[in-house]
Structure formats: structure tokens, C-alpha cells
Amino acid sequence: MKRHYDDPAVATHVAYVSAHKAERFTYLESLSPAVRMAVFNDLSPALQRSILDHAPASILVPLIDHFDPDRAQIYLRQISDTKRRKHITTLLRKDLKQKVAQFTSFHTKVAHELVRFNYILLPHTTTIGEAADAIALHRAETGRAPEVLVRKDGVCIGEIDPRTLILNENTELVGQHLSAIHTLPHTATAADIAKIAMNSAIQKIIVTDAADGSVVGIVYTGEIIDLFEEKPEESLYNFAGLEENEHPFDSPYSKIQKRTKWLVINLMTAFLAAAVVIFFHDTLAAVAVLAIFMPVINGMGSNAGTQTFAVFIRGLALGEVNLKNAGPALRNEIIAISAQGILQIGIITLITAMLGHGMLVGVVAGTAVAFSMFVGIIAGSLIPLVLHRLGKDPALSSGIILTTFTDVAGLVTLFGLAYIFLL
């Protein structure tokens, strides 16, 4: 293959390493792993074998790690000493395992197989004909067509669409036909991973070493989405007060055993709302029409809270939101619910007036409904955020807590305003 140096400095490094045997390893160690890889790639085969046989592991492991799995295997096989080869291989596998484990820690159920290694990494000076040969060799050895990544100065800069190999001349360089790639370091947070995975235009992520930029592997966003979609679904069991292992055909005894605790807790919290009604029984007796609005308040507040709760549970599962950055999200919820509350007040006032109970009753009832919805979105936002911050399941018993907040707040507002304006 004709050499086209990416950078004049690479040619200078190659010349120095070739000419200064005594300082060779010290000089290589002074280079960044990416540049070291680019230099090694352009050394003579004899000099490459000498480095493979004699370079310290601290130089050799990062060097080989920068190549794709196919090329790494070729270089490992060239190490003449069997014991040394096994030692270097063990270090490479341990390093790769640690990086993969750190990247996949964003989800407790993720398997290490999420990160794929079915790729080849070619210099950007590779011709399309040479790339086709490399793909054919990989397919012959593995039975699979690889993803084709392209590097420059030891750093991955893009990928090649397979159609490029068909539509262009064999003598053209792959560096002239790059497609953009999307990379994440192996130390990426769940929020970073979710943000890029949720972009429907992105099909794959190139996972790189956070320290030296070498390629760790490839992750397909569809598989990430599948994992994230599972998490909120599982939490719905807790939200409903059910055990995750309950099934439709479980025995009545099993269902009673699993549900009774939450139903009793729900009964106790329901008495808080009942206590509000008892406290304002004189107001209710004087303005009996208020009883009509009690189920409306309970339903509207609970529904508004549940909608917000679902949005925040999904945001937590995707790593998009947490207690620290929730301010803007909560502000948007408040603005939206304020507009909806005004609409509810108008509708309820109109209906009440049409039924002959007067507009003031409608304003009081509508305001209570709007405030119940407001409390619902506040509770639906903060309850999962706080529980998540405390290390608890964000959906654990949240339905019960949410309903209690909205019911009590709505009824207190209804009877309190009625006492002030209607008596």
C-alpha cells in the first residue's frame, strides 16, 4: 500500500523511530497512543515485529488497543514469545472488559454483549479496492460483514457506507467518502447515552476510550432504546401497588397477599380527604351543590398528576432529568397547567351557570379543580425526583401519595373558598 502521511509530523516520527534504536521505546512512549499507532502502522514489517517482541507492555498494550480486533489479532500472533503474547492478550482483554463494564453500567440489566466488536478500522489513505479486500477477509474469517470505520492520525474520523464500495472507483481513497459518526466516551453518563440514542437519525454509537480516543466498540441505538423502554414499564407495577411477579392467573390467595398492604395504606390516606369533608360539613350542608364537584376535583387532579408523573418517570429512566436540573422542566409543567387551569375554570363556570347555580359557584369549583391539578403536577414531578435522589424506586407507592395530595388540596380549596365567598 502506498503511504500517504496524515501529518508531516508522522513521517518525522517514523524516521526518528527507524533511525534511533537506543531511544526507540522512550520516544514511542512520549507520543500519544493515537500518534503512536499511526507511526507504528507506517514502520517496516521487521521494525514492527521488533517492537512487538521487545516493547514494554505500557507501550504495547495501548498501541495494539488502538487497532480494530482483526488487526490486533494479527499483531498479537506476530509476538514470538508465547508467554509474552498471553500476558499482553490478558492485559488487553482486562482493559477492554473494564471499559465495556463502565459504559454499560447505565442500566442494571444490560448485558456486555450490547457493545459489538464487528468492525474494521482502516487508515483514511486506504483505497476502496483495499477496503473491499479487508471486508472480504473479515467476512471469510467471521461470517459477518463488518462496519467499516476510518481513522486519521490514529483517531476514528468517520465510517464508510457499503454502497460507496460499489458506486466509486477502486483507486479512490476511503477518506474522500466518509459518513459522519457519533461517538461517546466509555465513561458517558446515562443522560448522555439516552440523549444520543433517542435521536431517530442515529443508528449506531462509536464507543471510544475517554483517555486516548481509541475505539472500544459499537453500540446500536435500537438495542439501547429497548433497554430503556423496559425500565419504566417495570416501574408501573410499583405505581399500581402491585408486585412485579404478579400474573393474571395467580390464585386469589396470592393476589390478596400481594395487594392487601397497599390497599390498607390507600384506605388510611383516603381518610385524610374524608377528614377535610368532616371539617367543612357545615359549609357542605349550606351549599349542597358543592358535593357535585368533589369527584370532579379528585379525578382531574389525579389525572393531571399521573400524566406528569409518567413524563418524569420516563425522564428519570432515560437519564434526562434529575432533582438538580428539574427547574426548567417543572417551570414548563407549571405554565402548561396554569393555562389548562384557566380553561377548566371557564368551562366549569359556564356549566354551573347553565345549570342555574350561579357563576360564583362555578368560579369557586373551577378554582378548586385548577388548584388540584396544579398540586397534581407538582407532586407528580417532585415525588419521583425525590425518591430517586434518596435511592428508592421512583414509582414506589407514588400513586397513593399523589392521590392523597391532590384530593386534600382540591377539597380544602373548594370548601375554603366556599366558606369565604358563598356563605
From TrEMBL:
Bilayer topology = Multi-pass membrane protein
Question: Could you tell me which InterPro entries the record lists for this protein?
Answer: CBS_dom_sf, Mg_transptr_MgtE_intracell_dom, SLC41_membr_dom, SLC41_membr_dom_sf
**One Pfam family this chain carries?**
MgtE_N
Cell compartment(s), UniProt: Membrane
Is Transport found in the keyword set?
Answer: yes
Q: Does the keyword Acetylation apply?
A: no
Main location group: membrane
Please list the residue ranges annotated as the Magnesium transporter MgtE intracellular domain: 20-107
What is the native source organism of this protein?
A: Candidatus Kaiserbacteria bacterium RIFCSPHIGHO2_02_FULL_49_34
Q: What is this protein called?
A: CBS domain-containing protein
Q: Name one GO molecular function term.
A: monoatomic cation transmembrane transporter activity
Source taxon at top rank? Bacteria
